[in-house]
Amino acid sequence: MAPMVMGVSDKAPKLEHKGYNRGLILGLTMAESMLLLVFCLLLVAAAMISAERSHRYEAERKLKEAEQQLALLEQKRSEQSYLIVQLQRQLKSGDLSPADQAKLEKEWRELVLARETLDSLSAEGVKPEDLRELVKVAEVLKQHDIELAKAPDRVDKLLAAGQGGVGPREWPPIINLDDVRTNYFQSGSTDLTKTFVQLLNTTVADEIAGNLNDYDANIVEVIGHTDEQPVARRISNLDDTLIGAMEGRLPISAVEPADNAGLGLARAIAVANVLKANPKLKNATILPMSAAQLILPGDTVTRGQAGAVESRRRIEIRVRGRTAPVAVIDSAAVNPVSLH
Q1: What total of structural domains would you count in the chain?
Q2: For the chain, does the N or the C end have fewer beta carbons within 10 angstroms?
Q3: In sequence order, what DSSP letters do the residues of 123-176 get, joined into one string?
């Protein structure tokens, strides 16, 4: 009998504990849980009331500012009404100061002149809407630094250039700087003589600026030509020095080409750097290029001409407009192409 009694006494406390857990939520009794819920609701309600109160204060502040502005406008209107009444009295009595009389006569003449101008334009079929459109056109011309008085000539040039096959097109002249006259480049060298630099900064820069303006251009191409003498140097460092020389971080003498194509490009960079530093050409994009030894004076392709020919060691400069948007290439997005 004793073992049976011990079995009953062991189970009794466990049943009482299980029954006690039925009234708990997260360790809280039902009453405590309800108090916590009510407290949270009160916090939410307090936040909503505070936000609504802030909105009301802001609305009251804006209303007060609007009332103050309205009062100021009303005061200004009263002052202007008083001035109008005073001016009307002076006009009726003729009691105007000499300065007021002169101002009134000037404004009256301007008003009469404006009226006569409008009548004259209306007689020629011009409407007020046309004048408003003309103002818009003048604004566009101003943005492109074109004077309204010169606009007809610019339009005529653009129309003439766009005629295609009807008559010849007018192209900007090519500025040809050959080596015969002043020995601009020593044989195989990219260094400019002082005479050449002075010429570039004066006569040549003025001529380029005039062509840019006359032909509405913004690109200057500087093309280096060479003769067919082989370059004595065997190793070229153009890949390492060209960008630095163009940006002015390296002297042009640091560029060492190993062929005529590289020599022509290095000479073009030397000239382009001088032109880029000239304030007369600050709005132009200057592009150095090389024609190597391929093109003879007179725009013909060589068939082979050995020896030192000074007339072929030359720089040609021409201007043009930017015909297409500049394409920006993301180098990180370009996959290398393997050629096998």
Answers
A1: 3
A2: C
A3: HTT--HHHHHHHHHHHHHHHHTT--GGGHHHHHHHHHHHTTTTSS---PPPPEE
